[in-house]
Amino acid sequence: MSINTAIADRARANEALTAAELDELATADILSLGMLADEVRRARVGDVVTFVRVGASGAGAGEAGEVRMTSLPETLAATVAAVAQAKAATGGSALSGFSLADIIDRGWGDLAGVLKQLKQAGLGAIVEAPLDRLSNPEAALQACQDAGITVQSLSLQKPNAEGRTPMLMQARALAARFPWLTTIAPLPREQSIAVPTTGYDDVRAVALARLALPGVPNVQVDWTQYGPKLAQVALTFGANDLDRVSVTDDETLGRRRTSLEDVTRNIVAAGFQPRERSARA
Amino acid sequence: MDLKAFEQRIESGSRLNVDEALQLYRHAPTYWLGRMADGVRRRKHPAGVVTYIIDRNVNYTNVCVARCNFCAFYREVGHSEGYVLGFDEIYQKIEETKALGGGQLLLQGGHNPDLPLAWYEDLFRGVKARFPDFKLHALSPPEVLHISRMSKLPVPEVIQRLIASGLDSVPGGGAEILVDRVRKLLNCYAKASADEWLGVMRDAHQAGLRTTATMMYGTVETDEERLEHMLRLRDLQDHTGGFTAFITWSYQPEHTERGGREATGIEYLRTLAIARLVLDNFDNLQASWVTQGGKVGQLSLAFGANDMGSVMIEENVVRAAGAVYCMDEVEIVRNAEDAGFAAKRRNMHYEILGDPFFRAHHVPRTLELSTAREAGDTSEPVELVNYPARSAAGKRQRSQPPASPVA
Predict the structure, then answer these.
(1) How far is B286 from chain A, CA to nearest CA, in Å?
(2) Fold observed for domain B17-378
(3) What interface predicted TM-score (ipTM) does this complex get?
(4) Hey, what domains does chain A have and what are their CATH numbers?
(5) A2 interaction partners in chain B (CB closer than 8 Å)
(6) What residues have CB less than 8 Å from A211, skipping those under 6 apart?
(7) Domain locations along chain B
């Protein structure tokens, strides 16, 4: 099914598409949808693709634009201590960490107060707010704002093609409410080994995120999780940012190796200009 | 570049020449190439069907004297990791394949100097005696040439003898890039020059066999040489009509002597799309999910592919070079249907065999492809003593009783 030209024109004009319009776009043929998303992306953010090299805490920052903590300790005190220790070891690189949903699930009390403590210990940003895991995303993001700490991306924990449009509408409302939300990562963090999302699923999700969120400049794909091939193709469907490029050039990672040469080569081969960035905080 | 004019020419069925194809390959927007290729695919396959085959990719030996520098699979004669599968092992693999709904082996291997023509003939006859309806899609052109050289028989005679033993069709492996400059740099000119590869295919077609054609890109070749490869295939297809399908994939560099980097996913989709436009006399283009992964494999269906290839069951060659993807029948069908197609089983001739096998039979899911043998199993099949070895290592081995017989 070809693209409805009236909807396409509204997307080009950066207008807020309705849920029905997004649902209709989701049924368009994949190449037409990709072409529209690519056109809109180039008009909004040009032909630059940004990427960030991320180091693991404890491994030394090296050339990382960001050091990221992934494992959340059991207690707040242990987390504050771990953040302080990691910050001391970053050598000046920005320190990010954790899923906002994981912090809330710990039940450590007043969220804004918890986040303030983490910020004071040296945490520069929360890595992500997975919308499908937050029972009250607005309150959670308000707590971040009150604590003076940003969330690097709105994300999705599990695949849910049926719930995509409501999620995008929710993301748009949140981005309007919290203008510091500048990035969406529309591909799910979890993948089933037996039934993974398909290539069509993934690039459709990327394209719809680009078209649904005129106020969110960055559509992000996780380079390590999705691999060079899908991540590169996603760039032509509206994505403009690659997250979690490894700071190490580890040949034992095989085809998923994420050297600077590989990521820049893939970006250029897709017709874009690579630009390494630092952490978003 | 006047894309509108190209669009009209392609839609009217006009044939692209090499200069036009090169211009498009280098400069046309990726989406434009995809749309054009998708349009040609729709005209050739208007029913909205994506096909696939249930067969098993068996490598009967990894011992090879060719020494192609892009290959991570081969082992030299006498190497401790060298193996030859026994007839009973191959029969067992056929039993397993049949249980999954398969009806064919894709049987290829190294250029092993210690396997004479009689070994292939006996194997094929043995397969047909036990599994009369089971198909043997076997021995790529360089293997046929190798057998021809070893047996000192002309290629047409070798093909006739293999057909008489049970050969059903010939896979298009070993083509790499059909330009001798490239083949010399890849150290595969000696195994088969471009003319020799095409000559074997011509002989096979004239003997009544259908074959496939392949292209491995991303090593040392230029864009012009990729297109020269396609045009040489197109020319032969004009004369014989014997190719059923074209399959292209990117060079897999890991653990190879040549090393280097793999071509990107976008390059794959562009190469596939230009192949659909250039190879106007090929009905079928396969998606190479085994090198590109399931996701880009599925996206191939929007860039000119109409076939998801094989469920493979087993794979050894690209795995050795770092590609470890797996798609069982459930996944292939799910991906084809998710892309908006009806998924149908086929045979090597692209005749539709029916709906997905797993929908009518209990088939366990496969999340990892099998290998030729368990790691470290280098046992020597007992029947090998019946065949004269040519290499010194082979002669030594066959003069001793087998250490751990298979059958």
Answers:
(1) 16
(2) TIM Barrel (3.20.20)
(3) 0.93
(4) 5-275 (3.20.20.70)
(5) none
(6) A11, A17, A22, A25, A36, A37, A40, A238
(7) 17-378
